[in-house]
Amino acid sequence: MSFDSKRDAMALERLSALVDGELDGDGAAQACGHWRESGEVRSSWHAYHLIGDVLRSDDLAGDPASDVAFLVALRTRLQDEPVVLAPQPSEHRGAAPEQHDVHVANGVRSRRWSWMAPSAVAAGFVAVAGVVMLTRGPAGPLDAPASRLAEVAPAAQPVTASTLEAEPPALVASGKLIRDVRLDRYLAAHKQFAGSSALGVPSGFLRNATAIESER
Amino acid sequence: MRPMTRRPFSALALAGAVCAAAPAVWAQASAAAGDGAAQAREVRAWLLRIHEAASHRNFQGTFVVSGGGSVSSARIAHFCEGLNQFERSESLDGQARHVYRHNDVVTTLWPATHVATIEQRTMLVEFPALLQAGDDRIADFYEVRPQGAERIAGHETNVLVVKPRDSSRYGYRLWAEQATGLLLRADVLGERNEVLETSAFSDVAIGVKPQPESVLAPMRRLDGYRVLRPALTPTKLEAEGWAMRQVVPGFRQVSCVKRPMDNPEPSDKQVLQTIYSDGLTYVSVFIEPFDAQRHTRPMLASVGPTQTLMQQQGDWWVTVVGDVPSATLRTFAKGLERLKK
């Protein structure tokens, strides 16, 4: 008993030294060992810090429940904050959402983002290349930005052998977004030859077997 | 009325040709990595084993491809009986499409539009032959090394990392079933090692009982279908008045055909298609007369790992397609030269 209490007293003393930053490597390791093993040491560790805090400022002696309340309130308000996203076509320009609609607007934006992303990427490429992007098809989400860009971008330059060095316009699309019929045809004709590779049959044929295209 | 504007997609054709010869070179696959010639031999052994498994094994399962923001899947079956190969694939997403292959005859059915295409695919045999003869240079352009074992679709697989030695091609990660070598999953890796496309069996049964009739019966039952027989005519690039001045290192021409594009009817306008392969991937170069109405804009498109470059070159419209970085496509387009005649 007395041995235990003596050891505990020593441990607490060492812990106190650790809080004050007065322990060397071995001592710190020992103190940490005690901290890990003993729940009492851990609660003392917390108490020492609380004492230190209160000594520094009376405000820190407040009811811990208020901290919890603060955190909860903060999280709630963070959730309600609108998410800041990349610029998008401003169909709703002028119709500033009212304050209490923020949450709803947020939801709508997030959803739109999921399908706007590829077109935003595509638009970025077009802007870099400085030429018209080509899109076509069943009212794909690409339509809006593409047509907007087309007005701004210079007309497509016929690429001749001498101007080959110039970068052709880029179109980045996911398999689902792209609905350019002529592109599909070349892709199909290309994939027919999937056997021209060592992996041919397994990867090539299987990929073709599942190829997405707007077949009719 | 254009009930069939595109070609069927099956590239099942190859296996038929491959089936003919497949020595058990793959026994070497487990040999320790040597250098130089030994490594080249080992690479070849790995690939041959994968190739051999795909053509000789009987398997069926569900195959899923995801990349470029989309996912699609198909039911697949492959049977080998003696020298005969049978294959069946049914797409599970989008419009129904059933592809059946018996050796080099490929029948594609479109149940929704009642269109069927029947194709002979015999000319695509060159690549495996190269591999068999040890004449390939895959090891010069790719580094292949094992990367442990993983479980795919319920099977133990060996993982192979295929790293390109230059920036002209993509890398791969391959999962080959341990007992048979059958490829159960393949990832295409981009320049920054990002996954561009994953294709994998979600479930597969290997060593199933062959059921050739399940392939042959639908190939015969074409009542009510409009049957099209588009033909690919083998030809030579030079004979068509073209030369490829500069080929991307490692690629060689494996095929050259004239084919209809807009419409499967043979009378229609023909497009010249030349295929170049480096052993693991391949590039198609399409050449056709420029038509201001149809060929409106040059374009570089990217769908998953597949890049497409389209542009006018003189009086011609050139389209280059391949699972390679776009710079590689540009090199092909630039290398093309019209012969003066």
Helix/strand-derived class of chain A?
Answer: mainly alpha
Number of helices of chain A: 8
Q: What are the low-pLDDT stretches of chain B, counting only 5+ consecutive residues below 50?
A: 1-34, 123-127
Number of beta strands of chain B: 21
User: Could you give me the name of the CATH homologous superfamily of the largest domain in chain B?
Assistant: Lipoprotein localisation LolA/LolB/LppX
Distance between the termini of chain A: 88 Å
Largest interface: A-B, 60 and 99 residues
Q: Percent helix among the residues of chain B?
A: 10-25%
Summed up, the domain count of chain B is 2
Rg measurement of chain A, Å: 33 Å
Give a quick account of the main beta sheet of chain B: strands, pairing sense, barrel closure: 12 strands, mixed
The oligomeric state is: heterodimer
Strand content of chain A: under 5%
Secondary-structure element string of chain A: HHHHHHEHH
Strand order within the widest sheet of chain B? 7-8-9-10-11-1-2-3-4-5-6-12
User: What's the pLDDT, averaged over the residues of chain A?
Assistant: 59
Describe the structure.
By secondary structure, chain A is mainly α. Among the domains of chain A are: about 1-60; about 180-215, no CATH class. Chain A is built from eight helices and one strand, in the order H-H-H-H-H-H-E-H-H. In chain A, helix 1 packs across helix 2 (about 25-35). The longest helix of chain A is centred in the middle third of the chain and has 28 residues, at about 100-130. Chain A is elongated and about 85 Å long. Chain B folds into two domains: about 15-225, outer membrane lipoprotein receptor (LolB), chain A (Clam), CATH 2.50.20; about 230-340, Phosphorylase Kinase, domain 1 (2-Layer Sandwich), CATH 3.30.200. Chain B is built from six helices and 21 strands. The radius of gyration of chain B is 20 Å and the shape is globular. The two termini of chain B are about 40 Å apart. The chains are: A mainly alpha (about 220), B alpha+beta (about 350). Strand 1 of chain A pairs parallel with strand 18 of chain B, so a sheet runs across the interface.
